[in-house]
Amino acid sequence: VRDAVGGAVRCGAVRCGAGGMGCAALLGGCLLLGCSWGPGPPGVGAAALPTATYVLDDAGGLGRQFDGIGAVSGGGATSRLLVNYQEPYRSQILDYLFKPNFGASLHILKVEIGGDGQSTDGTEPSHMHYENDENYFRGYEWWLMKEAKKRNPKIKLIGLPWTFPAWIGKGENWPYDYPDVTAYYIVSWILGAKQFHDLDIDYIGIWNERAFSSKYIKLLRYTLDKHGLQQVRIIASDRLWEPISFVLLLDSELHGVVDVIGAHYPGTKTVPNALLTKKKLWSSEDYSTFNDEVGAGCWARILNQNYVNGNMTSTIAWNLVASYYEELPFGRCGLMTAQEPWSGHYKVEAPIWITAHTTQFTQPGWSYLQVDGHLEGGGSFVALTDGLGNLTIIIETMSHNHSQCIRPPLPHFSVTSQRATFYLKGSFYMVETLQVWHSRLGFESGNSSLFQQLHPVKVWKGSFSLDLNVDEVYTLTTLKIGQKCGCPEPPPPQPFPSNYKDDFNIRNPPFSEASNFADQTGVFEYFINASDPGDHVFTLRQVVVQRPITWASDADQTISVIGNFQWVNMTVTCDIYIEKQRDGGVFVAGRVDNGGIYVRRTKGVFFWVFADGTYRVTGDLAGEEILMKGLSGVRDNAWHTLTLIIQGPSASGLLNGYPLWENVTISKPSNGWAAIGTRSFEFAQFDNFHVE
């Protein structure tokens, strides 16, 4: 019998869920006892809930084909810190994301095609920094796609550019003036994925959240086909439903080459033109919400309602895993959190288990049933079938205040406790039992019950009833799979090491970038200095020498940040080598307060030296707030050691171990990361980095 508070359900000695939390009483607990039940009289003690009936029938045909649930790595540098996790923790995180029937069990992985530009939380390196340069081992997206495929060979892969290297635009900040060049560049990435990593890319996008060019899209299709890539499908335009839908209706040739209309943050709605195109409609980027219980509520609501309200057959979360410094923009807006490779700590957040409610019991290629999908008491349901008699129903009753996504604004609605009676007809009439998986997001109690298996529902004469409370998710399915891993707890969280060194001495690095450095403008790569006599053979080099075709407001300087954002007092030491003659320059910095899309407004304490033999101390990356300047004697193409000491309200600088300037007063910012970087888009090298 249900206790009066509506909390736990106790059936004799049976307690359900986690610690008795989060079960709806189903006909006075009949469900928990597994007895036969149906739409008959309510059991003892059941409150008289508003009741509605819903029919699930495939006799009149099916709805749209389901294309899968996925997530984005990139846009940008969102998986940056994941790669330097030690085993077994790194594999555990990957299992939670990609392993079928285990955690999020994602159907789709969408990655950024790195373009050397800032794309939200950092830059991702291009496979072609320069016109005569090709390297299919930069960055971490190749590795991530292979790890995903290793766990789920059927996972679908999508590539999408945010930024492009400068040579694509031949000096213009625009990728469509030379569409044949851009198409060649994108197709090279797809061919490289196959040639060097045996990865088949399934879908390719145009330019994230920016303008599309019909001429370019047609040329891209032609170039794909010319290289035997007929199986690669095109998504457009990863922005809004319009103008792409309207243009597809006007331009039959374009209509013939675009396979999917992908919209971002559609608020579960589509537009008439998009429906008229008869194309697959996807929410090709969505979520982007802090991954607490409200984020999980947002995700649960849109996973259902993107189809119920908007006919969207795929929803893709930005982002896959929050593996970037939390103080960068949109901190912790991933399905899970893994931002501490130095400690091994990670957190499987609630959105992972909300994902599992759909992904563990459906597959791309299944079909939605033709149902309205709105629950009378608020909330929604979808029903899917594999066409072979299997049925999966996902129900969500998320309340307005507990399911607000970061965008767009959510109009008010109300959800109440309710009883739902489902009638199974057509090929589902013979279904006798349904497995039940349940989540209850505990906002008042702060105690959520996530993805718990309950006793199966007995279907009686083709129907069953379910009492639904607010802020719940149910999956009812004929599939007897489903797993919630009871894996070992990861190590406890630890701050970034307060004494950290990197000499970059690694002959065959597994990745192109040094651990824990997060590039915010420019790209910093391991480099082998063949001409060096010995002290500086292995270095870190900034390699972007022209401003890329940008997506955000990249700085005019290059910068890579590292460490603990809460640091106040610090000593940063680094050997530096200016390669650019006359007006080249480099810096070391501390208390760096910004990055990502806000990198241009970064403040901190910056110690610069220039090839003309001068130095500067500035309070900002732009170099406009000059605190001190003078002569240093530094020259290009020679190694020097810079040391920046920040203590309380003052800073001092050493050059090659000798004081160069001291007791410069600094007021703001009061804390931040350490950083290295260059005066412009120029080659420069760094070695023996040390922060304490």
UniProtKB/TrEMBL annotation:
Substrates-to-products reaction catalysed: a D-galactosylceramide + H2O = an N-acyl-sphingoid base + D-galactose; beta-D-galactosyl-(1<->1)-sphing-4-enine + H2O = sphing-4-enine + D-galactose
Name under which the protein is recorded: Galactocerebrosidase
Location of the Glycosyl hydrolase family 59 C-terminal lectin domain: 519-692
EC class: hydrolase
Subcellular location: Lysosome
GO biological process, one term: galactosylceramide catabolic process
Family the entry assigns: Belongs to the glycosyl hydrolase 59 family.
GO molecular function annotations of the record: galactosylceramidase activity
Domain Glycosyl hydrolase family 59 central: 368-483
Record InterPro entries: Aldolase_TIM, GH, GH59_C, GH59_cat, Glyco_hydro_59, Glyco_hydro_59_dom
Cross-referenced Pfam families: Glyco_hydro_59, Glyco_hydro_59_C, Glyco_hydro_59M
Domain Glycosyl hydrolase family 59 catalytic, first and last residues per copy: 66-360
Keywords: Disulfide bond, Glycoprotein, Glycosidase, Hydrolase, Lipid degradation, Lipid metabolism, Lysosome, Signal, Sphingolipid metabolism
GO cellular component terms listed in the entry, alphabetical order: lysosome; membrane
